[in-house]
């Protein structure tokens, strides 16, 4: 599905009373989710354990 198709589908499922701000926010969230999924597929993510290790170092 193209970005335009995903955006149209998202907007079609939103209430008729949605504002431009509502639409922009939901499109932003969709974009962030898709970027996260792409990062995971490309190996640009950390395991839970790796995150805990990094946080432990920062919080010392």
Arithmetic mean of pLDDT: 96
Number of separate structural domains: 1
Shape call = elongated
Helical residue percent? over 70%
Tell me how many strands there are. Answer: 0
Count of helical stretches: 3
SSE layout:
Elements: H1 3-12, H2 20-41, H3 48-58
Structure in words:
With 60 residues, the protein is an all-alpha fold. The chain has one domain. The chain has three helices and no strands. It has helices at residues 3-12, 20-41, 48-58. The longest helix has 22 residues, at 20-41. The model has no long low-confidence stretch (mean pLDDT 96).
Which labels suit this protein?
60 residues; 0% strand; 72% helix
Give a brief outline of the structure.
With 60 residues, the protein is mostly helical. The protein has helices spanning 3-12, 20-41, 48-58. The model has no long low-confidence stretch (mean pLDDT 96).
């Amino acid at each position: 599905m193209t970005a335009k198709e995903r955006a149209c589908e998202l907007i079609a499922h939103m209430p008729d009373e949605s504002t431009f701000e509502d639409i922009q926010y939901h499109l932003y969230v969709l974009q962030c989710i898709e970027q996260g999924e792409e990062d995971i597929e490309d190996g640009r993510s950390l395991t839970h354990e790796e995150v805990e290790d990094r946080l432990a170092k920062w919080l010392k």
